[in-house]
Amino acid sequence: QVQLVESGGGLVQPGGSLRLSCVASGFTFGDYLLMWVRQAPGQERELVARISETGGRTDYADSVKGRFTISRDNSKNAVYLHMNNLKPEDTAKYYCKVTLRRGDYWGLGTQVTVSS
Length: 116
Fold this sequence. Notes:
Layout: E1 3-7, E2 10-12, E3 18-25, E4 34-39, E5 46-51, E6 58-60, E7 68-73, E8 78-83, E9 92-100, E10 103-106, E11 110-114
Parallel strand pairs: 2-11
Antiparallel strand pairs: 1-3, 3-8, 4-5, 4-9, 5-6, 7-8, 9-10, 9-11
C-alpha cells in the first residue's frame, strides 16, 4: 500500500533552519510530482512547494519563496524540504502529498514550531 512518512520537524527559534524528509513506498516514486502542504491550527491547508517527477521544476508559495527549497532523491524514494530563516508564521504541521491515478495520499505529518 502507499505510505508516506515524514520526519525532521521540531522546535526552532526564529531565523533557524530545519530539513524535513518524506520517504515513500507503494508506488513508482519517480513517476509522480510530490508536494509539501502545511496546516496551522484553525487555518486552511496551504500548498508550500511541489517538485516535478525528475526534479527539474519546482514551485513555491509566495510566503516561502527564497527561504524554502524542495528537492528529491528518486534513488531513495525521498523528498525533502529545506527551510531557512524560519518565522513564527511557519508554525504548522507539514505533510507530504502525492496524487496518484487512484487518488490523493498523505503522510501523517511532522510538526514544525517556530518560537523563541
